[in-house]
Amino acid sequence: MSLVDSIRNTLVPIHREGYPFIAGFAGVTVVLGYFWEPLFWIGLILTAWCIYFYRDPQRVTPTDDRLVISPADGLVSAVGPAVPPRELNLGDREMTRISVFMNVFSCHINRAPVRGRITTIVHKPGKFLNAELDKASAENERNGLVIDSPNGQVAVVQIAGLVARRIVCWADENNSISIGERFGLIRFGSRVDVYLPEGFAPRVAVGQTAVGGESVLAEFGGEPSAPLVRIS
User: Over 50: is that where the pLDDT of 6 sits?
Assistant: First the structure.
């Protein structure tokens, strides 16, 4: 492997959604630095953080239809039964919900947890509570997708958080989507919920770290019990 290949593999691509924000941070940094040098260094750190926030790394995604892959990087904050948002028209029965909380240092690119056809996309305005709170699923601003997968309807919901004020979704209704395919992002701290129909068994526990597009959240046809974990 050449030196150029090594550098290329080390550098993480930046998503185009971040270009205007990075340019804005850099411009303000230059202006503030003109008036007072310490502000330049503070701005430079914030600009570097903005670049880091909008990173878009490649991921190696399992393509087994029995698996549900994490739609986001972050901490698994909830695993259990919950009624999906009403606007998704999935009924009033509880489904298995797995939540992944993203902090301001997580990669915020969201990926499809399963493959299938997108039957529904609904954006609902709401509050901007801390996304770690359970009630954020019902009260916060959100954008939900329903995917008709080989094993039933799976919903994935982007939830804005305390700092996040903008949900981006570039997927379209009635289009097919591949497992692990990028479909959107949430700016500056947020959460993604996945609602699973009967037949799926969780393969993660609260407190585990998930990698979007790679970590297995659940498996179809498995035993309906959460995995045992050990903290070390």
Answer: no
pTM of the model: 0.83
Q: Which of 7, 67, 96 is nearest to 220 (CA)?
A: 67
190 has catalytic annotation? yes
Question: How many residues can be counted in the chain?
Answer: 232
Supply the DSSP symbol for 232.
-
Residues 131 and 46 in one domain: no
Please, are residues 24 and 31 in contact by the beta-carbon 8 Å criterion? no
**Distance of alpha carbon 23 from alpha carbon 223, whole angstroms:** 50
Same domain, 133 and 210: yes
Q: Give pLDDT tens digits for 32-47.
A: 888 888 888 888 888 8
Query: Domain range spanning residue 25?
Result: 3-54
- 35 and 145 in one domain? no
What is the token pair recorded at 139? 């009260």
Residue range 41-90, pLDDT digits in tens: 888 888 887 777 777 888 889 889 999 999 999 999 999 999 999 999 99
**CATH code, domain with 103:** 2.70.70
With 0-12 / 13-18 / 19 or more C-beta atoms within 10 angstroms meaning exposed / middle / buried, residue 228 is: exposed
Looking at the fold, whether 36 and 74 belong to one and the same domain comes out as no
State whether 174 and 93 are in the same domain.
yes
Name the catalytic one among 70, 106, 137, 190.
Answer: 190
